Hints:
With about 220 residues, the protein is α+β, with helices and mostly antiparallel strands. The chain folds into two domains: about 1-35; about 40-220. Helix content is about 20%, strand content about 40%.
Amino acid sequence: MQHSFWYDAAPAWFAGLGTFVLAFVAIFQEWLKRLFVRPNLLLNAIVSRPDCHKTKFAMGADVYYFRLRVENAGNDAARDLQVYLASIERQRADKQYEVVKRFIPMSLKWAILDQPTLPVLLPRMPPRYCDFAHVTDPQLRRSIAEDLPGVKENSPILALNLETSPNNRGHLLEAGVYKFGLKLAASNHPVRDYTLEVDFKGIWFDDEDQMLRDGFGMRLID
């Protein structure tokens, strides 16, 4: 009787074991896939064309756009990418940095899309650009609501390309040396932190080459 019970139950046991093995293999395969097939996002800051360039803004005003380059060096597509501007510090006269308190952390906007989220970035494709900041001809800065108290009328202002422009003008910066804390991530990629140093001279040059050489500088630092 006992022998008959184990004999009858054997198919069910083997079926259950087979299901377990198949589930284990499926999970193991997915784990291996995530280990070897994944995106690898890289951010870079280069002050030259096409990353940075002069163009026309509202009302025909000349404007310089400074953009961040994002590439996918992995072997899988990155999805729902964002570049988050987490902090800003300004260098004081003693070379120490202090927090820009009026700044509100938020995401930057992607070039052309004008949105904070890039749906997909395929691997090994040309880079996509994230709009970091722009500088408009100071003659028209008031007419486009990019003005700061205490900044001379003929001096340009650095305007960050945040997902929205806060009413406290926290996206507008006067001349100075700054450190920006950036976070690059995607729905299938962990957060990667970067520190961007920017030297904004607060001087407007009509010549594009001169502006990109003498008026604005940025680089990634440790």
